[in-house]
Every structure is written in C-alpha cells, then in structure tokens.
Amino acid sequence: MAPNNRNMRPPKGAKIPGQKIDFVAVKRLLGYMKNYKLTLGIVAVCIILSSLTNVASSIFLQILIDDYILPTLGRPNPVIQGLSKLILTMCGIFAVGIISGYLYNRLMAVTSQKVLKEIRDEMFEKMQKLPIRYFDTNTHGDIMSHYTNDADTLRQMLSQSLPQVFSSVITIVSILTTMLVTSWLLTVVVIVFVILMLMVTGKVAGNSGKYFIRQQNSLGDLNGYIEEMINGQKVIKVFCHEEKAKEEFDRKNEELCENARKANAFANSLMPLMHNMGYLLYVILAIFGGVIAVTTGGVTLGAIASFLNLSRGFMQPISQVSQQMNMVIMALAGAKRIFDLMDEQPETDNGYVGLVSAKIDGDKITECNEHTGKWAWKHPHGDGTITYTPMKGEVVFDGVDFGYVQGKTVLHDIHLTAHPGQKIAFVGATGAGKTTITNLINRFYDIDDGKIRYDGININKIHKSDLRHSLGIVLQDVNLFTGTIMENIRYGKLDATDEEVIAASKLANADDFIRMLPDGYNTMISGDGGQISQGQKQLISIARAAVADPPVMILDEATSSIDTRTESIVQAGMDSLMKGRTVFVIAHRLSTVQNSDVIVVLEHGKIIEQGTHNQLIAQKGKYYQLHTGAFELD
Ligand SMILES: Nc1ncnc2c1ncn2[C@@H]1O[C@H](COP(=O)(O)OP(=O)(O)OP(=O)(O)O)[C@@H](O)[C@H]1O
Ligand SMILES: [Mg+2]
Fold first, then answer.
1. Kind and range of the H or E run holding 598
2. Closest by alpha carbon to 557, among 588, 598, 594?
3. Are residues 335 and 363 in the same domain?
4. Which residues does the chain have with pLDDT short of 50?
5. Is residue 349 situated within a structural domain?
6. Is 399 left (phi over 0), alpha (psi -120 to 50) or beta?
C-alpha cells in the first residue's frame, strides 16, 4: 500500500456533468417508487393541502379587512357578527395545514428510508456478484462512498428536496392564481419584478450546481484518503510520513472546503438578497396599490394587504426551488454512480455441471444429501438424462495464456497435469505468476486462450460455486472477519460442529495457540485480526480451508510466516488430510516442496522446468541452482 497511490487516479472532478437533470436516473428512481404509489398519493394530497392553507391565510386577511374591519371603522358599536365563525373556519384550515405538513414529512422520511434500504440491498447483492477484476480497478474508498455519501444525498433528495420542490410549485401556482383574481395589474408588477430578480440571482448563483457535484466528489475522495491512511497507519509511522500524510490531507480538505464554499455561495448570498428584494417588492406594491386604489378604485384596502402578504409568500418558494434544484442535481449524480455500480457486468457463469455428494459402489454412483466424503460431477444432458462421473481431482492446463490487462500476457502457454492425489508445487521468483495460476483454477479470472480441465471437464462448464466448493483455498493475503476464532474457522463450512472445527484446527496445528488465548476458541477477532500474529492468522486460515474437507487444496504461501518446526508439523497434518487428494502449494521455502510429486518452476510466466525433486536436481537447471544456493528466489 503506497499512501500516495490515490494521486495516480484521474482526478475525480474530471468528469463533472453539467448542471442538467439526468432523466435516465430519474426514471430508474421512479421505478423504486412504484411500490409506494398509495403513500406517494397521500403525500401529494397532503403537500397540496398544506400549500393551499398558506394561500388561504392571505385571503383570510382580505376578508377580515374588507368585510369586518373597514365597515366598522368609525362606528361606536362595531358589529362583529360572523367574525368568530370566520376565525373558527380559519383555525380549522390551519389545523388541516399543520397536520398534512406533519404527515407528508413523516411519510416521506419513512418511504425514502425504505427506498434507500432497497437500493443498498441491491447494491450489496450486486457487489457480491462482481468479478475480482472490479475490485482490482476500483478503490475501496470509492466503492464505500456509494453506500455512504451517494446514498445519503439520495435520501435527502427523496425526503426533503422533492417534497419541497413540489410544495413550492403548488404554492407558486396557487398564489399566482389568487393574485390574478385579486388584481391583475398588481400581478403584472410582481411578475416583472420576479423576472428581474431571477436575472440578478442567476448571475449570483453562477455555476453553483457544478460545485455541488464537485463537493460530493471531493467528499468521496477525502473519505477514501482517510480510509487508506487508517489502514496504512503502521507504514506511515515506519516511514515517518505523518507530516506528508497530513499535507496531502490538508490539500484534499482544502479542496473540499473550497468546493463546498462555492456550492453554498448560492445559498449564502442569495438568501439575504432575496430577503431584501422581498422588502423592496413590498414597498413597490404598497405604492402601486395605493396609487391604483386612489386613482381608479380598482383594488380594496384588504386586497392590497392580502397582496403584500401574498408577495412575501411568493418569493420564498421561488428561492427554495432554485436552491433545492442543486440538491436534486447533486443527488441524481450520486444516483447515477449507484446505478453504474448496479449495471457493472457481473461475473458470468455459464456452467451447468454441478458437484454433488455421492455414494460410489463399484461403477454405480448415486447422489445423496449426506456427507460421504465422496463427490461426483453431475452432468445434465440435452436429452434430459443425467450422468455422474466420480470427482477425482485431476487438473490439466492445456496451452493456457492469460493476462490481467489486455495486451499484457502474464502466463504463456502453460501445460501442466496434476494427477489425482498428487502434490504439485510452484516455485519461482516474485511476480513469476504462481498466484496467477491458482487464480485461474478457481476462476477468479477467465483465461484468454487454451483450456483448463478438471476431471476431463472444461472448467467453464462447471458452476462457479461448485467449482469453488471443491477447492480449499488458503489465499496469499489472509483475511479474517470480525467474530470469534471459532466462527472464523467455521467460515469454511458453515454447518461444521465445534468438534469438526477443533479437529481441523488440530490438523493445521492451530489448536495449541488458540487454547493459549484468554478466551480460547471464543476469542474475538476484529479489524482483520490485528491482535494475533501473522503466522497465527495463517494457521487459522489453513484450519478454515481444512474444515471444509475439500477434494482439492490450494495453499498460496500458506506457511511463509510460520517457523520451520511448526511448518513441518503443519505439513505432516496437511499431508495426512490430503491423502488421495490433489494439492497445489506455492512456497518460497524449497524445503516445503521437496516431497512434492511435481515441482513446477516458473519464470516470467513460463514453465521452464517441471518434474520431481530428484529429476530436477539431476537436470542441473534453474531448480538445481536455486537448491544449491547459486540463485536466490527473489
Ligand atoms: N490484479 C492484477 N492486475 C494486474 N496485474 C497483476 C495482478 N495481479 C498480479 N499481476 C501481475 O501478474 C504477474 C504475476 O503475478 P503473481 O501474483 O502471479 O506473482 P507470484 O508468482 O504469485 O508472486 P509472489 O511470489 O510475489 O506472490 C506480476 O507481474 C504482477 O504484476
Ligand atoms: Mg503470489
């Protein structure tokens, strides 16, 4: 892990879409809303009701002034008949407004959480189906940000922005209608003013939508960096890179701050501007209204009062819509990133041959559910018949070529036969292609040319999950999950009993050290096993592979961190476990591989020698040189 390798990625801001609504993303989001039609219908009704009550307050003011206050002005005994009824009606209307406002906010909060849950579920399910290649080319921080930042802005949009935009639009339309009915002349004044105002604010707002998206990207970048720095704490300390890491963090933090500042400049400078412009409109309307009332008598005092009120109610939703639109654009950009993940090409599996537990009696093979320690390949044929062939564990590479990236071949023309029960060892310098060969057997990657056959069956025809079930794999990088040691070993076979787990640990020689731990098998492992040693982690991962009792084992440098004495005990345990089964071992220590049936020497992705220890020594080639110390492995 190089703390700075993030710098090598293209800058995240490079592909910033313009301030446009992504309608494809909108359509897909609507797809998720389909299940909540009834709720959304209720929400729409509530939003309309709560917006209309806003308008009703202005009409109420007009009626109050024109019908009750003005006629009683100057009279000794004001008539307030009917006033209490009007006030009661208004109270009722406001109550409806408050209740519906509460209801739609609550319903949307719940619905958006449900939609988000669905999206997260789908994202995770999809992630499990993605090929290893995807994780090679995307940093973990980036993938994580889909679940955190992107999902959160989406939730905010669904629960807040969308209802607000809808409510604002309804308010604008209803206020405009009321204004037109009250006085078209004053309405024209308001409209001209609003158009002028939008032109001014458009200048202030500038490209803030673009910065909202940049803000989101910088946030993802910063989070990814923090995650990498947490993982790499030891490396940072060893190389005294604290200052450098902080400088880089400051740079990224500054970038986020700058983008956030620009994005929010809109909200920060526009709100006071709009507010003050609202007062200006107030004054203009009062003067205009007064002039019209005096000269033509076209408007009543109540109408002017209600108009002043309406104009204030009009400005607010307009500024809200423009502000929320940025949020919507930002959230849709996040939704697009989420959908891009969902649209990634999943791992293909065209396999139809399955692996089943079997009873083998002479030539007769019958499928059975219980564990017999014997397996058979189940071939369904085009004519509906099914044939079974015993699983033996023969693996043949026939002219295999492979490269991780197109045009850069890593393995060249690999020919290799592992007979059932044989122990095949790969030796070769770092980067020679040892791990790569094993990555092809379990189909982490698909080959470019040639064939790999497993008991005579092309591995492309075998169900991936069955293929991987048949292999016990100890990977080069040991990965432990949060949970007890018992649970971590049981990961190899979920229905294994405690006794089976302990037996497997004994085989892997892990039992001794596990019992020395304060809580034994119940010791909690967290954060990828930071509290136990590297060698102990390897022993646990060997036990995890052993508990599955697989017909074929692949051990990638499984014993590299284990002392030689323990290693020979593990080897003995493994050898007894592997009796009659095929094992592939990759080891840096030649002592580990001497007793192998076939030793394969790799150099730059090519097999340069293969044979038994004695044959290769007699050949006096590379292996001989390695063995006699004339050459070091790396
Ligand atoms: N995920 C990957 N993407 C691209 N290239 C890769 C990837 N993994 C390995 N390579 C390249 O493939 C070549 C073979 O790598 P491989 O991991 O098989 O080596 P190895 O023999 O297992 O080495 P080591 O002894 O260090 O484990 C190397 O040149 C490496 O750079
Ligand atoms: Mg390797």
1. strand 598-603
2. 588
3. no
4. 1-18, 634
5. no
6. left
Which residue has its alpha carbon closest to ligand 1 atom 10?
A: 404
Phi, psi at 560, each rounded to 5° = -65, -30
Sequence-separated (6 or more) residues with CB below 8 Å from residue 187: 176, 179, 180
What tokens does 191 get? 């409209």
Say whether 493 sits in a helix, a strand or coil.
coil
Tell me which DSSP letter residue 267 carries.
Answer: H
Which residues does 181 contact at the CB level (< 8 Å), separation at least 6? none
Residues with Cβ within 8 Å of residue 276, at least 6 apart in sequence: none
Q: What is the pLDDT of residue 5?
A: 37
The domain in which residue 563 lies consists of 395-628
Same structural domain, 500 and 563 = yes
What are φ and ψ of residue 354, in 5° steps?
-110, 165
Residue 245: helix, strand or coil by DSSP? helix
d(CA 583, CA 597): 10
Same domain, 401 and 373: no
Minimum CA distance residue for ligand 1 atom 13? 431
Question: Tokens for 100?
Answer: 């519906």
Q: Are residues 382 and 529 in the same domain?
A: no
What whole-number distance in Å separates Cα of residue 161 and Cα of residue 204? 21
pLDDT at 577: 65
pLDDT at 633: 52
- Per the structure block, which two tokens stand in for 32? 């998720």
**In angstroms, rounded to a whole number, what is the distance separating the alpha carbons of residues 614 and 622?**
13
What is residue 561's three-state secondary structure? Answer: coil
- What's residue 566's pLDDT? 73
User: 314: exposed, middle or buried (C-beta count within 10 Å: 0-12, 13-18, 19+)?
Assistant: buried
CA-133 nearest atom, ligand 1: 1
Is the same domain home to 326 and 470? Answer: no
Alpha carbon distance 317, 170 (integer Å): 9
Neighbours of 634 (CB within 10 A): 8
Contact, 406 vs 413, CB < 8 A? no
Give the side-chain half-sphere CA count within 13 A for 565: 0
CA 500 to chain CA mean position, Å:
35
Do residue 280 and residue 400 come from a single domain? no
d(CA 566, CA 589): 14
Question: Is there an atom of ligand 1 within 6 Å of 406 CB?
Answer: no
Do 162 and 122 have their domain in common?
yes
Ligand 1 close to Cβ of residue 426 (< 6 A): no
Residue nearest to atom 18 of ligand 1 (CA): 433
Q: Is 433 in the pocket of ligand 1 (CB under 6 A)?
A: yes
Are residue 509 and residue 532 in the same domain, yes or no? yes
Residue 347 covered by a domain: no
Structural domain contains residue 348: no
pTM value is 0.78
What residue type is assigned to position 584 of the chain? F
